[in-house]
Amino acid sequence: MNRLLAVIPGVVLSGAVALAGVGLSRFLGVQLLGFERSPVSPVMTAILLGLVISNTIRLPPAVRPGIAFSVAKLLRLGIVLLGLRLSVAEVLRLGALGVPIVLGCIVGGLFVTLLLARALKLPEKLGTLIAVGTSICGVSAIVATGAAIGAKDDETAYAVSVITVFGLVATVVYPYLANVVFLGDHAKVGLFLGTAVHDTSQVTGAAVMYAQTFSQDQVINGAVVTKLVRNTLMALVIPLVTVYHARKTAGTTGCGNSSIRRFFPGFILGFLALALIRSIGDVTIGAGGSAFGMLSVGRWTGILGLLDATAVSLLVVALAGVGLNTRYRDLKRLGIKPFFTGFVAAATVGAISIGLILLLKAASVDL
Is 139 within 8 Å of 41 (Cβ atoms)? Predict the structure, then answer.
């Protein structure tokens, strides 16, 4: 009971900052920029508000345990629940032409970004966060990877900022670029937006913007399905990244039981387990009309929606705590190089996406 009482003030503060971040995100994206769904991540705004508070107000010691609890425990629970977003069925839906394009963008983006980060001598974990955020699925990939590899709070906050800024630029610019490059081919445009724009909300915003501007509603479905496939591959990439960093830190090549436990933290195993449950549920719906033979499509969708909203809420609260726990001097120490890396990474993924779509003549991919 004493421990519970000790964390309440900090959790309440993190929750209040999170709520303010959600409100600011909606104001900026919907009212200011005019999108139906804000492309400005509430995680980003929550981090920024937390940073402002932590660097302008001396926080009382009573809130520190709750902030630490939010960053450590609530973050990991949110990551576990994110596993329910990932479904192998979406990979099958994208088809034989779309999947290689997604894989090419992920592998190429990871390789170039990590190579550049190493050349610029960025902190290795920060470079990894920018790489996975650009290549896979933005903020979700960053927070999951950051927790898995033990990245510092300021590295996570900086990586989220980088990804959000360039993802927002892509949201506004890429719909017009796609129309010029692909000459109104909605299948190619959907693949491009789904592979080249970072965060899920940003992909949706860019697709809606294209659909409204060029009267091509089919683009929305294609872009969202493509992005869901990228999200699904997070279940493969994050464990691999975790193993790489754990082996490097431990300096071991063994794979005994203790090593496996260290390489795959409990929350990553939980993440993978829920991804498996989601996939089985979707497959059983396709085969028999109900998830696991007992949940109707409506009920299954409702459960997934509720748990996804819970995951997002937990992540926003946790990342608000990251902002409250980060000092400006820590971000200043990282310098401007991460932003340059993020710019090159975003441009690289966009270029790879265009090249592969044109090379594979993906006009036949119609979602």
Answer: yes
Contacts of residue 29, Cβ cutoff 8 Å, sequence gap at least 6: 35, 37, 38, 39, 40, 205
Token reading at 207: 């697709």
pTM of the model: 0.78
- How confident is the model over 206-254, as pLDDT tens digits? 888 888 788 888 888 888 888 888 888 888 888 888 888 877 766 544 4
Angle, nearest 10°, between helix axes 186-196 and 218-250? 30
In order, the DSSP letters of 142-153 are HHHHHHHHT--H
Distance between start and end Cα atoms, the chain: 53
CB 70 within 8 A of CB 321: yes
User: 292: phi > 0 → left, psi -120 to 50 → alpha, else beta; which?
Assistant: left
CA torsion 13-15-17-19 (nearest 10°) is: -150
Dihedral sign, CA of 54, 55, 56, 58?
Answer: positive
Residue 231 Cα to chain centre, angstroms: 8
In DSSP terms, 148 is beta-bridged to: none
Tracing tokens 């990342």 back to the chain, one arrives at: 319
Helices 218-250, 266-288: crossing angle, 10 deg rounding: 150
Per the CB < 8 A criterion, the answer to whether 262 and 246 are in contact is yes
- Of 61, 93, 78, nearest to 139 by C-alpha is 78
Cβ-based neighbour number of residue 123 at 10 Å: 18
Say how many domains are in the chain.
Answer: 1
pLDDT in tens, 282-310: 889 988 889 998 999 999 999 999 998 99
Collapsing DSSP to helix, strand or coil, 252 comes out as coil
pLDDT digit string, tens, across residues 99-116:
888 899 999 999 999 999
Structural domain that includes position 344? 2-364
CA dist 40 and 29 (Å) reads 6
- Within 8 A by CB and 6+ apart from 173, the residues are none
Determine the Cα–Cα distance for residues 300 and 294; give it in Å rounded to an integer.
9
150: left (phi over 0), alpha (psi -120 to 50) or beta: left
Alpha-carbon dihedral angle through residues 143, 149, 154, 157, given to the nearest 10 degrees: -20
